[in-house]
Amino acid sequence: QMVKDINKRWSVLEDAEYDREKLLIKEIQRQKNLERMAKTFNSKVQLRTSWINENSKLIGDNADLPKNLASINAASIKLNSLILDAETYEGRISDLAKIKDLLEQENFHRISEISSDNQKVEKLWQDFKEKLANRQLTLENLKQVYEILDDLDRLEESLKEIEDTLSTNNLGNHATETEELLDKHNLSLKN
Q1: Alpha-carbon span 14 to 21, nearest angstrom
Q2: b vs e for 133-170, b when ≥16 Cβ sit within 10 Å of the residue's Cβ?
Q3: Chain centre distance of CA 168
């Protein structure tokens, strides 16, 4: 009877050991997956950071503002293209937060480092979007100023033409010529 009890308990012990081994293997696999996910996260952080930094340089700053309307239009087109790229890239930024959240749910041992990296990328992203918006506003305001200056230049030319027409000393030699000059004078005043 004692041998039978020992064999029975030994069998229970072996089953428990086997179950424990399966759990350990499962946990090791889970940890490997988390490490792989963290490695993927880190490489994505580097890619996102690099993309944001490179594209931030393309935005420019207020020291290099365009000096004429054509340059402003070209800069606006370039900036709008960059804005569209950023809008399509935004999903990639939010994917980082999803990976971070998943690692956090799984109690990953380096979650504080992962969270810190994610916060840095989100801060960089917000600064980048703010820089885009500020540059767009600056270009729009600058375009309005140059359009007003263009309008003033055209107005000045028109006034100069009117002044030249009105300041003529030629009164005409006969009635028909005088009437033509008077009609020109009236047209100049209407425009």
Answers
A1: 10
A2: eebbebbeebbeebeeeeeeeeeeeeeeeeeeeeeeee
A3: 59
d(Cα 177, Cα 188) in Å, to the nearest integer? 17
**pLDDT tens digit sequence for 53-89:** 999 999 977 778 888 889 999 999 999 999 999 999 9
End-to-end Cα distance, the chain: 123
The token duo for 27 is: 């946990």
Residue for token pair 């028109």: 158
Condensed to tens digits (0 to 9), the pLDDT of residues 2-38 reads 899 999 999 999 999 999 999 999 999 999 999 999 9
Alpha-carbon distance of 52 to 43, in angstroms, equals: 14
For the chain, strand residue ranges (E) read: none
Q: Is the pTM of this model over 0.90?
A: no
